[in-house]
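User: If only I could read backbone structure tokens as easily as an amino acid sequence. Those tokens are not coordinates but codes from a learned vocabulary of shapes. Could you go through the record with me and say what the backbone is doing? Here is the record:
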Amino acid sequence: RTFWACFSAWALDAMDVQLYAVVMPTLIALWSLTKGQAGLLGTAALLVSSLGGWAAGMLSDRYGRVRVLRLTIIWFSTFTILSGLTSSYGQLMVTRSLQGFGFGGEWAAGGVLLSEIMSKEKRGRAVGTVASGWSVGYGCAVLLYSLVFSFVAPAQAWRLLFFLGLIPALFVLWLCRHLEDPEVYRKMKTTQSAQPQKSNLLEIFQPGLLPTTLVASLLAAGALGGNYTILTWLPTYLKTVRGLSVLNTGAYLGVNILGSFLGYVLCGHLSDCLGRRRTFAITSVCAAITVATYTLLPIKGVFVLLLGFPLGFFQSGIISGMGAAFAELFPTRVR
């Protein structure tokens, strides 16, 4: 039950976030945006998501993982719908940023919740498979984009896409209705009640945990920075640079998303078999080679299509083991 709730929540999160990526070329044309402005809309959501992760993480340590998970789903779904009501660049900047706050918080609460439910031997593949929900959500965004833009004029189609985010949100909240916090968390709270101690929200920056916090943060920043660059700009690149139609863009993205899905799942298993560190090293080297080939070599046509598969596989494979690895690095009270 916890697995499917976290998987569905992350897929919904991905769909809502990636809806912007697929409508970005349309907004550039309709609102006469520069590519810098369009990119800033994506960047703002990601930057604010770091604050959302920080806030939701602290709240989930204090008030419970499940309660905060539900709250973040309601939060980012609300601001996804409000994004469809905007009529200016500034308004969309506000709603996108606040959507990002909930997006970052959802993974903070959901990732920890699942990590504490699963045994260490299966944690990598479980968290990696939940992470593959991003590919499912991204795929839903691309599918909806292809369908809606085929029948509705672009000026209304992009708004309709954001409104459709409400339907899966209701389903995910229904899935979460009977979830309970993990036993290891409940035991920790019982111990704290029996032996009250002053809460320190900055404990992860104290000498005992500071090196771990810094190295883990650098790893996440590097891997996620590269991953979100591709996720944000690939649809626009295919449509404006490669000159693909709506349906052809969807097909090319479909190959990339399939590779991404398998990257999450298989590299999650790999992290359980080979270890977290070795898996990070292998996938990061392969991702660097693939990205360089995709962007720097003069490839065309079917080669661009086929190379989208390993591009997606390795860009997501790096991230697959992060939830499990980071959960294992920190004690329950600050996880």
User: Anything to note?
Assistant: DSSP finds 14 helices and no strands in the chain. The longest helix spans residues 210-241.
